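RECORD TYPE: inverse folding
INPUT: structure tokens
STRUCTURE:
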């Protein structure tokens, strides 16, 4: 008798397996990279006799590296599928974390090398690489898997920050980095190698009817890049300054922190709603609803509705925008060339996200609550770009 084979990747069971593996790996990847500096920057800077701003500067440089490498990573995934690229991200993240863990205090250059390796790992392994992998596996049917992965990874900060805090308290920041490296090698790497199929993307001989053609197609691409760049700027600015902004509105430090803590749960809730209720909407409609959350949140705070209203609306919009940046390009332009196209669309977003904390921080220092209208204006610009986008026939 023939043995019963495991569910193929295209079957419901196979998709659940792939989504579960990528969701868990994404949670680990975000927790040990993007969310790491918030906990370890201060003790790391103290160990090297550096100001904390130097550590955040190194982190910003690693984010700039992801912007530069994004188009290349996307082309590689388009050509050969994403499994090997995602496995490479685990190796790069582990190498970066171990480099941080062993960096001699007298050699800060080794510390910056570690952040550079983390930047390489983020370019190879965060959402955009995972979404391109899913587009290669499932084509236009990848919306559901993309939403599922984003929903799972929405818990990255809720898991990463407390775990890193506990590890740093027990083992020091170096020990925390070493443990995260071991999790990349012992858990995330096997998830990618064993549960993600080595399937290439759809063949080039099967062109998509939504592939950008001529000036109109590239105009659509530019509008989408503007929309996602503006949203990405606002998300990065609030990730760094939301408690401070809410405090400027008159909230106490405790209330501002409590309201800011709602953003994470609201992101996850919005992603659950997308999977359960909003999946029938076209991604362009979802994108417009999500992007409207930024100016609406600013209006709520400006009208005195309180910091909790801002956090709820802003957080829900953020949660949907993470999904939209994967599903909307797929719906507009198709699966062929998805990875390279994503790299081009998201490169300016990554560049501005690296600069957003500094830029918005300066605006907050000089204009106080008036910086809120920069946030609102950028959101309206993104919404205008989405309004000008058209659905494919």
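DESIGNED SEQUENCE:
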């Amino acid at each position: 008798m023939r043995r019963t084979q495991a569910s193929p990747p295209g079957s419901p069971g196979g998709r659940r397996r792939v989504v579960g593996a990528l969701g868990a790996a994404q949670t680990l990847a975000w927790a040990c990279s993007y969310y790491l500096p918030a906990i370890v920057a201060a003790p790391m800077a103290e160990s090297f006799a550096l100001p904390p701003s130097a550590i955040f500067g190194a982190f910003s440089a690693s984010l700039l590296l992801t912007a530069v490498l994004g188009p290349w990573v996307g082309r590689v995934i388009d050509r050969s599928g994403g499994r090997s690229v995602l496995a490479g991200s685990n190796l790069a993240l582990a190498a970066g974390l171990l480099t941080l863990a062993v960096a001699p205090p007298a050699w800060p250059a080794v510390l910056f090398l570690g952040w550079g390796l983390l930047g390489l790992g983020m370019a190879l392994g965060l959402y955009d690489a995972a979404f391109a992998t899913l587009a290669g596996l499932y084509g236009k049917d990848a919306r559901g898997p993309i939403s599922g992965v984003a929903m799972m990874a929405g818990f990255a900060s809720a898991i990463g920050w407390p775990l890193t805090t506990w590890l740093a308290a027990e083992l020091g920041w170096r020990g925390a980095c070493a443990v995260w490296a071991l999790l990349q090698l012992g858990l995330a790497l096997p998830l990618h190698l064993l549960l993600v199929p080595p399937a290439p993307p759809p063949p080039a001989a099967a062109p998509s009817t939504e592939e950008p053609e001529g000036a109109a197609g590239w105009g659509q691409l530019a509008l989408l890049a503007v929309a996602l760049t503006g949203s990405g700027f606002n998300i990065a600015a609030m990730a760094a300054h939301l408690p401070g902004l809410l405090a400027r509105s008159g909230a106490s430090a405790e209330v501002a922190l409590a309201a800011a803590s709602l953003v994470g749960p609201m992101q996850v809730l919005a992603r659950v709603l997308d999977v359960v209720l909003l999946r029938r909407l076209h991604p362009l409609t979802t994108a417009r609803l999500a992007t409207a959350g930024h100016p609406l949140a600013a209006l709520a705070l400006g009208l005195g509705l309180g910091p909790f209203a801002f956090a709820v609306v802003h957080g829900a919009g953020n949660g949907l925008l993470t999904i939209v940046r994967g599903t909307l390009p797929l719906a507009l332009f198709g699966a062929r060339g998805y990875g390279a196209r994503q790299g081009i669309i998201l490169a300016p977003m990554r560049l501005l996200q690296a600069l957003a904390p500094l830029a918005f921080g300066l605006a907050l220092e000089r204009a106080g609550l008036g910086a809120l209208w920069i946030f609102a204006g950028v959101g309206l610009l993104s919404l205008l770009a989405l309004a000008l986008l058209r659905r494919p026939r």
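NOTES: The chain has two domains: 15-195, 214-388.
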